[in-house]
Please model this.
Amino acid sequence: MIVGDIQRVLGILPAQMSRIIRSLENRDDPLIECRINPRDKRKIDVCLTPTGERSLAEYQGVRVGRLIAKLQAMGDEDQEELLRVLNKLHGLLDRGA
Model:
């Protein structure tokens, strides 16, 4: 992703984004790598390094595991209702509503 796009998604100021980028890039084993965008030299592309990809996968695995545990703790009726609402939301998003 481009630095500016990441900044907008996170809703942070440019100075904060610079500090975050530096902290992720200037580690013994960097999580990201920054490169000048080949199509627009004014923009910086941010890519995950292999270490960053592993860290993201580990984080996502933990989050998914916690979510599964919470869903399993719900009763059957609540799970069915959640599924119904999620399917409805999915349909709305598909139509661009």
User: Anything to note?
Assistant: The helical segments are 3-10, 14-25, 50-73, 76-95. The mean pLDDT is 94. The longest helix spans residues 50-73. The longest strand covers residues 32-36.
